[in-house]
Amino acid sequence: MGFIIDSKKILIILTDAKSFPLHKTSGSEACKTVQQPSGFFLMELAKPLQKLLEAGYEVTFASPKGLKPEPDPLSESLAAFAGNFYERRRENELIDRMKRENGFDTPRPLNTISDEELDSFAGVFIPGGHAPLSDLGDDKEVGRVLRHFHEKRKPTASLCHGPIAFLSTKQAGDGSFVYKGYKITCWSDAEEKMMETMLGGEIKKVESSLRNEGAEMVEGPREKIGAITVDRELVTGGNPQAANALGDQFLKMLSVH
């Protein structure tokens, strides 16, 4: 079976996880590791997705095992949308539309997407939420897919906790971290420490994990309010505030690729 090279196809990799490990440091569960509910972060998926669809791109949802994606409960709260009820409704309606029209509830298991089929995608996008900490960083199939986009220099976008997936490239190919020396922005250790205070526990740090493998992490006041980082085929952002800028830059990179 041959695949047509279609520059209007985008692969979106979602987490299968519904929680992430939180090592409790206070309260009755101190010293225990509990599973904290999580999933994909609604606006980090919806904002770039909306831009891709409006620009005429066809999206394919995929995940390591093909399980039904669940939103991070925090990302559905009105607080996440700074009280904007209409914005939240619009983004939930977009996901509902994807469920009806685009198989959102049944993502493609990544091992069903051959290297040949990967050639037909113009770019790949990995949204955040804490759940990717549970599965995307050490998944061999995620690593295979990301290596493909890296080797072909095809636009690769991710934000918040999504960039933990980049570590998966060590599980495929020659086992090297292919983004060594890349400038990357993600959910910072400082932001994670604030979450740890809220949740009363310790969480794996994306920024430190990537830095330890040789990435050049770009973090600071600008990134906290949504500034993005571009390096070669990679565009990354640190938190939900970066979702719009990341979507715009991803489209720009796709149009010139």
Overall pLDDT: 96
- Fraction of residues in helices? 25-40%
What is the number of beta strands? 12
Major sheet attributes: 7 strands, mixed
Question: Ends: how far apart?
Answer: 25 Å
Treating each run of at least 4 consecutive H or I residues as one helix, how many helices? 9
What are the SSEs and their pairings?
Layout (H helix, E strand, L loop, with lengths): L8 E5 L5 E6 L8 E5 L4 H13 L3 E6 L21 H17 L6 E2 L5 H4 L4 E4 L5 H4 L4 H12 L4 E4 L23 E2 L4 H11 L1 E2 L3 H7 L3 E2 L3 H4 L3 E4 L2 E4 L5 H14 L1
Parallel strand pairs: 1-4, 1-6, 4-5, 6-7, 7-12, 8-10
Antiparallel strand pairs: 2-3, 2-9, 11-12
What does this structure look like?
The strands form three sheets. A seven-stranded mixed β-sheet has the order 5-4-1-6-7-12-11, with helices on both faces. Helix 1 (42-54) crosses helix 2 and helix 1 runs parallel beside helix 9 (243-256). The longest helix has 17 residues, at 85-101. The mean pLDDT is 96. It is α/β, with parallel strands linked by helices. Helices cover 33% and strands 18% of the residues. The chain contains nine helices and twelve strands. A hairpin with an 8-residue loop joins strand 2 (19-24) and strand 3 (33-37).
